[in-house]
Specification:
single chain; 365 residues; mainly beta; Seminal Fluid Protein  PDC-109 (Domain B); Jelly Rolls; 2 domains; 4-stranded mixed β-sheet; 5 helices; 41% strand; binds calcium ion
Length: 365
Amino acid sequence: MFLTKNALPIVFVFFSITNLYAQPTSWNSATPYNIGDLVVSGESTYIAISENSNEEPPNATYWTDLSVAASALGVPEETVPTLDTTTILDSLSALESPDGNPTSVSSSKIINISTNGYSEAGAQKMSAGFIISGTENLKVYIKAEKSQESGITPLTNPKLQVWNISRTSMLYENDNWGTNSNVSDINALGGSYPPIESTDAAVLVTLAPGAYLVDVFGAAGNTGKALVAVNNVDSTSSSQLINISTNGYAYTGAQKMSAGFIISGTEDVKVYIKAEKSQEAGITPLTNPKLQIWNISRTSMLYENDNWGTNSNVSEINALGGSYPPIEATDAAVLVTLSPGAYLADVFGASGNVGKALVAINKVN
Ligand SMILES: [Ca+2]
Ligand SMILES: [Ca+2]
């Protein structure tokens, strides 16, 4: 789909295709099409995946939406027609869902994910993980703020470290955000991006596709509740954030752990959210976590789950495979389709118990 609320991507994609390749033509019932031909039908551009004539798109046997192909391949839309047919077909077959129907891939993105949780000492610190998918570098803004919630013990003077996923290399470290050499760029982000207090921590960095960890802890070994946020602030990169998880302490009531995320774009996104008992060593885990998804104003609870096996679509969760299905039967998860907007995911013990949990938010289409 070319239609998106983001004006820059529209212009970029449209002119790239116009300049580099033949303009896609309107689909015509009398024209024979070869693999790789581009046509416009309705509001979408399609690429032929099989020779055909008089097979009007959408028709998954002969045509694939260009944005779907681009997502499957992890490349910009304008790159798809330059690839060899085998590469395109292989990537699309990998998208086949268990029922044999091609999976639709949303052009909407998760652009911001944050977690309010407790950071305790040592191994019990709060740690956020995230994945950048795609082929291009992505500018991301990461901050660790003293929680401004009421009725909690805040983490004063937080510090953050960005590590590679294997934790063999610390890539960035910041204690107080004003000490960054690019602090003017952080201020220029505006809105709620710059941290609230001078002792909050932040970095604005460009990262290659891959998986990363962000540790948040008190600069003086102190503990308390902090907000860790990872934001896609890149208006040109085709890469995107597809996953973020946070390991943090969930207490009761206002001291529960809460993750927030924003979906930008115009299409619905299938999102998988889970709350797992932390499997880290040397910590007190949150046994039997429960999960609630709220609208951002917290006026409406959209979904609730205690134990993931009770979901009516549990077979779809199992079909996600890999590390997606929760580890324990008492872990919580939902696989839901959400419209663009802002949401909250609350994590807490099902019986008022407390401990460390993992909350993860994944875009799965
Ligand atoms: Ca600090
Ligand atoms: Ca549970």
